[in-house]
Fold:
Amino acid sequence: MSVKTLVIDGKAVTGRAGETIFNVAWENGVRIPRLCHVGGLSDVGACRLCLVEIEGQRKLAAACLTPVEEGMVVHTSSERLKEHRRLILELLLAERNHVCAVCVMNGACELQDLAAELGVDHVRLRYRFPKLGVDTSHERFGQDQNRCILCTRCVRVCDEVEGAHTKDVFGRGSGSLIINDMGGPWGESDTCTSCGKCVQVCPTGALFSKGKSVAEMRKDRGFLKYIVTAREKREWIR
Amino acid sequence: MTFEELMEQQARELERQRALSRRIYCCTAAGCVSCGAEAVRKAVAAEIKSRELDGTMEVCGTGCMGLCSQGPLVRTSDDGALYGNVEAADAAALVSAAPADDPRLAQRRIDTSTPFFVKQKKIVLANSGVVDPERIADYIAAGGYQALAKAVAEMTPREVIAEVRASGLRGRGGAGYPTALKWELVAKQPGATKYVVCNADEGDPGAFMDRSVLEGDPHRVLEGMAIAGYAVGAQQGYVYVRGEYTLAIQRLQAAIRQAERERLLGSRIFEDTFQFRVDLRIGAGAFVCGEETALIASIEGRRGQPRQRPPYPPESGLWGKPTLINNVETFANIPPILVNGGEWFAGIGSAPSTGTKVFALAGKIVNTGLIEVPMGTSLREIVFDIGGGVPGGGEFKAAQTGGPSGGCIPAEFLDTPVDFESLARIGSIMGSGGLIVMDKTSSMVDVARYFMEFCMEESCGKCIPCRAGTAQMHDILTRILKREATRADLEMLERLCVLLGETSLCGLGQTAPNPVLSTLKYFRREYEELLPAEHSAAGGER
Structure:
């Protein structure tokens, strides 16, 4: 397998052919922001937060979908990119009802963390405040559309890892919703195995375990890695 | 069918048509059908029957005759006269010895020596209004399928591509990518399974070029696809047509059946080893499915959402196989290019935009309808000579080209030649060919809001900038129109234009700001005038 050398933010790094800029950057301590990417799942390039500048290319490239090339010179945090990322986060915060003070994920939410990290101290856009539903029909989990950012991590983990494909996207545009099966209550789903993987990968409080109060929900980010590596590491219990 | 049989069929059909004293062509494209063309056709047919004129006269439905604003249109073959606003009551006069002498019809006769007719150059629409789209014999009589015969019998795939290259043909879907280059990319890909896809998911507001071609001359598109299949090494083609085009779907289905029956599609085409099947895939109403990666997802039966390119479809398209995707009008240009040669085509238009372009004229214009002009024709000629100008003596303000991805062209650029490069230079795009004319009564902010609403509703919702950004831009534009916006809102609007353009995943989001950008560029005053006075006075406060 051939190896490529490239420069990311002034740092000379190497990556295997076919590896993405995103993975090579993180391996080398360059933390490119992301919301839709989760290691272990396919990438869709939907959140646009990992966009980077590649010298010699007019268009910005999604780091999670762009394979490394020999001699590439990548910039991951120019002022222009930071400004774009801040505005994308503002768009997200204004799109639905992200009220941290009453959210189960307060303090551990990836959206909240990124907003703080990138310095989004206020939102310059009009809040849209849509009236969306909450589904608590499942015996162990709840789904709050108001906090959903449509990253589709839950859709992908359910399809690609659990193999159930309970969740999918319904509708289009800002009105898109994550639904269970054909749109019925989660608790009545025929396909859901209640494995909880969707809850663990959800970056916000849109999917949560029942019985958690404000700021009590914490997600197990390591479980996907565990599924992949447990056998070779001989970890039988976690 | 062999080439000899094809020529024999052509001769036989021409002989049959010559034996008739008159063919009465009724335009049965969707525009004329919607104002009563079917009733006219039926009345004429009944009149022929009751006068026992079968065998000497016949009525046939045709594709679009162009002057949609005066439909239903009828043309008589013996004297070539064209009549507009025809009613079923005119049937008797149409089959009479001298229809032109009938006082009612004489009043409705359309003068075909006006610029609308003489300034056009018809290649793609050559058969529209001339052949019956529901009869393959009519298309064969007009020389149909001879290009395919020539390609299969006399040319190698490489020679076919060379001919297309010589023509300089560029993609008519809007972006103007060189067609031969795309074909070559697919042809050179390894692997035995490849696909040819015809993008007929036309969805720009006010655009109906592809619909008219499919309704008026479906075989031309099928022939173009089969030639492409031969050139790139594909055995399967798909026409992805939008579900709203029921008449086009019906005619395409009939055309595919007829072509298969005549062995012009399917296996052993012209007794060669070349085989090519065409199937229809019907869209379900999503504009974004005109974007090629979303279109592929939709054909595969998945949710119609775009994905990141590269890989581009020529490398990895339908089911991961090399796939050629061209627009309806691009395929429709192929048969005449093979018959007349690439050089002939390259001589039309203005290099590097060769050939002709079909435009759908809509909005504040006298001659609403379908036209085809050589590339490089000026906007002034299109709007004023061919289009007849603004009705009621109104003053031209702007022309919108390229639909929701395009821009508004103000009066000062009326002399711009209409070609890919010139339109891009003034902040619009050629697009697929929709051309909407606006007069002084139109508010450009409202135009921008309208297109933004369209993009907001058609955003698939996958990427954040397009999904949430179009909604915010629509909100700001709506507030500007209600005089509730501030200068800070206008600044944010411009900021969002940059964000969407630079960060959206697919072309829909990347070009969604264009109508706003071009109206801001040329009609900024209209925006400023809608801001509250204290804000627009001295640089504005926040």
In short: Chain A has a mean pLDDT of 94. Chain A is about 25% helix and 15% strand. Chain A has two domains: 3-77, 83-233. Chain A touches chain B through 31 residues (CB under 8 Å).
